[in-house]
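Q: Sequence in, structure out?
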Amino acid sequence: MLDFEIIRKWCEQSRPLFIVGLARSGTSMLQVAFAQHPTMFDIANCRETFIFLRPRQPYVDPIHFPTRAYLKGRPNLIGLREMVAAHEKEHGELSEADSIRAFFWYAGTHVYPGRHPLEKTPGHLRKLELIFEIFPKTKILVCSRDPADVVASYRKRLTKAKEEGLPPEKTDWLDKGVDEMIGVFERFTKLVNEAVPAHGKDMFMAPYDWLIDSPEGSIRQICEFAGMEFVPSMVASEAKGSKEEGVSEKAHAIQKRASDAHKVLSAEEIGKIQAACGPWMDQWSRPGVLG
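A: Exactly. Output:
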């Protein structure tokens, strides 16, 4: 049975690292890097759970593959479900917050014992109040990137997905025009600025270009912010396991990449994006604690 006095205390004492912000802005690179740290969940590859947006998702069918993979396979997911089902049979359905607590507590005691939660879902930026309510010792990494490069990355990923034959329902999130993306950037800035007064000291802006220009220096600075020791393997590239579920395929190095937005977007599109986002760029491109 689940003991929520114990579970809530576990959550209050945990020191999670949650990676949020703009998609296509280095969230996966940061998750891969921090999964190499001995104190954090050693997540296999990059799995977005959406758990703060969809708290009941782990407990209902159809099974969400990334959530199953986050728990390193079906047996662990079923184990969590059985524990929650037994509790709910006696006490009624868990609240959204307790559904999330149970998920991370199970992961932290049965899947990644002795480690602290690590998770990246860019859209969790919309749920910072809930994150801090459940995990008061949370540290948040906010990923940003030159907006033209973000739009270009969306477009390249969409082209690749179509070439791979993925259906529209799998690619709709990538199929955004310039005006729609400008709206995304505006909402991103608004959400960050709204959170800073209450939580800025626990939020760190991690610009993509800063991260790839100096990987070791950047990761060291983030480690200092998060109160953890830097580990060289966080910026190393080495084969690690296979494509088997629950086993890391590769610890990717953080590598410098030149902007190629001009190859994907027209000069007019780039100009429009830069003009719209100009007022925000100083904030986006400045790494460090936000409050």
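Residues 178-199 form the longest helix (22 residues).
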